[in-house]
């Protein structure tokens, strides 16, 4: 198994009493809640944490993109990836991802990723996402065109990386006379492509298609959903005539390790509850604008009630659902081993800082996970 | 109750559901974002004097979603073909909200089949400095409360339990509304430039308490369409045909009668 340290870089100094006046930490929360002096310290602290993860033996570090919110301060994730490109010497750098449908010109991502891939000598992992629903409110992109624009932008970027330019691209949403990406990517034919998702049949079928075989990442989902979607991926691969490797499947999950189960529970509790109840908080209209999901998927979600918009979540609910893995090194190792054996993923993307978790606890979490959990899990799903 | 005929017409490769009732000059009603699933009392009242024709737009309700549908302009061309296919002449075109936007786009393109045009709480243009309500971010409760001045209508809307089939159709309507109107929000930046082409007698109807598209938009339409008349309905929100059906019908009938004389 391979290990990636995933960071959302939240505005951890957020005044949590914001919920008395505002219904979400996204889109409409005034940016007067953000103090740049505190932000300066947070950005540098978070970069330190990712650099530490790489030094401790994680195979890679991950950044991602969200807009107009306190949940994740990386509207332009390439800035963070660029800052890490030279300080992280051997680990991979995964941008998970750029939200393609939000872009007026997807070639900017082809260029940005190619630059990162060149600087790092081929250590970039290219993540493509649609962005969450809130992004469509913040950015004005039309959610009803989201799938279409995602696929077209993907085709344009991959062709830009793999075909000799200049060539014309004649799409419905994007049209260029001269696609000619300089620099070309370092990795040939192109950097690995990972597809983070909260789960949809359409996305899984597309990622598993033989011409893609993209690594599918399930993010922030209950373990039952994780198992179902990963089984769906493997079945789709079989249906299309091949057997999916564990390295086509990854799980992104917040994780906390401490000296004992009781200490881990006590230390993590306020911070993981803040993560779900304060930072991820949003009304259903913000999370699921019309057209973001197909009508069929939308009906399913409405029935299941969105995990991010449900009522207040407690650490115990989250642990019971497998949405948060927490405990002593032994407990956490066992939990991941069980899940890995049942579900068969090859990549584990642990989110080691969440919500308001302070630096000292984040560092301890990283050290214990890297020192006492990773080594025992590493042989799983290899060979 | 009038005898309402429901039929499916296939036009431009798209099967559209059409309700019709009454006799007389044709009155083509173009519905707003919430669709036209039901025959409503204001339609009934109009059907006393007109042949009222209420299609569900392509992409809405029981009508098909055609591949060609991307913009409100596509719907404007569709309804020009619809008018021709049904052989309608001297059409009194009435559009509310999103339907008003379609009607204005249609009239800019070709007004030869129109006798009158009524735009009620119409989308389609933007007035700088006058924000519209965010119907996509409002909760169901905020939506109901913001659509009406008289909160009894809001409460009735909120307490109505929709059967599953209707919920699905409302979801379909919301999806198509987003596709057509998400960005730029509820308008076409090029429409205002050409509204002067509308030489059809035009009535602009607006509720004084419209919180989705404020009444300043009514004044803007009046100023942009030559000879247009603006009537403001008192104590009325974004859906005058529901909140003030008698005044709505009287205004439309009175205007058409005057335009005829």
Question: What's the layout of helices and strands?
Answer:
The complex is a heterodimer of chains A (383) and B (261).
Chain A lengths: L1 E5 L29 H21 L3 E4 L13 H11 L4 E8 L7 H13 L4 E6 L3 H7 L6 H17 L4 E4 L4 E5 L13 E5 L3 H8 L6 E5 L3 H17 L9 E10 L2 H19 L4 H4 L7 H10 L10 H7 L3 E4 H15 L3 E5 L7 H19 L6
Parallel strand pairs in A: 1-2, 1-11, 2-3, 3-4, 4-7, 7-8, 8-9, 9-10, 9-11
Antiparallel strand pairs in A: 5-6
Helix pairs in contact in A: 1-13, 2-3, 3-5, 6-7, 12-13
Chain B lengths: L4 E7 L2 E8 L4 E5 L10 H6 L4 E5 L16 H14 L5 E6 L1 H12 L4 E7 L19 H8 L3 H9 L4 H18 L20 E6 L8 H9 L4 E5 L6 H4 L1 H16 L1
Parallel strand pairs in B: 3-4, 3-5, 5-6, 6-7, 7-8
Antiparallel strand pairs in B: 1-2, 2-4
Task: Describe, in plain words, how this protein is organized in 3D.
The complex is a heterodimer of chains A (383) and B (261). With 383 residues, chain A is an alpha/beta fold. Chain A has 13 helices and eleven strands. Helices cover 44% and strands 16% of the residues of chain A. In chain A, the strands form two sheets. An eight-stranded parallel barrel of chain A has the order 1-2-3-4-7-8-9-11, surrounded by seven helices. A two-stranded antiparallel ribbon of chain A has the order 5-6. In chain A, helix 6 links the parallel strand 7 (193-197) and strand 8 (215-219). In chain A, helix 3 crosses helix 5. Chain A is globular, with a radius of gyration of 20 Å. The mean pLDDT of chain A is 95. Helix content of chain B is 37%, strand content 19%. In chain B, strands 1-2-4-3-5-6-7-8 form an eight-stranded mixed beta sheet, sandwiched between helices. Chain B is globular. The mean pLDDT of chain B is 97. The chains are: A alpha/beta (383), B alpha/beta (261). Chain A binds chain B through residues 27-28, 136-137, 140-145, 283, 285-286, 289-291, 295, 298-299, and chain B through 136-139, 168, 171-172, 174-179, 182-183, 185.
